[in-house]
Amino acid sequence: AFFASKVEHESKHCNGKGFQRPGSSAFDRVYTANQNCGHAYPTFLAVLWCAGLLCSQAPAAFAGLMYLFVRQKYFVGYLGERTQSTPGYLFGKRIILFLFLMSVAGILNYYLIFFFGSDFEMYIKTITSAISPLLLIP
Hints:
The protein is mainly α. The chain is 78% helix and 0% strand. It has one domain: Up-down Bundle (Four Helix Bundle (Hemerythrin (Met), subunit A)), CATH 1.20.120.550. This is Arachidonate 5-lipoxygenase-activating protein.
């Protein structure tokens, strides 16, 4: 909602009635940042859901909240110079990778239970719970 309101705000301050506003770099930056965030959102939801369902809910929820804050940082950084958005982008990629690895660990644990009867769920939950605070390190 914040991203959409920023796009609407910039759209109202630009001259012209059409959606295409050539020469408005502020509008272009806001619109592009909104599109980038919108395109990454389905991937985030998929890995968040899989990580929470297959591995551990608490670290997945923590990583999900961190991702939302990082996307906010990315969006605000994109409003300035484009180089200001790079830390938010890289931090977001790291969180998505963490959620993806949690999903893979959950899937591997399922197959270990299915084929060999050995359950490593407690070890995986302990490791992900210990690693998730490291996501705060920039």
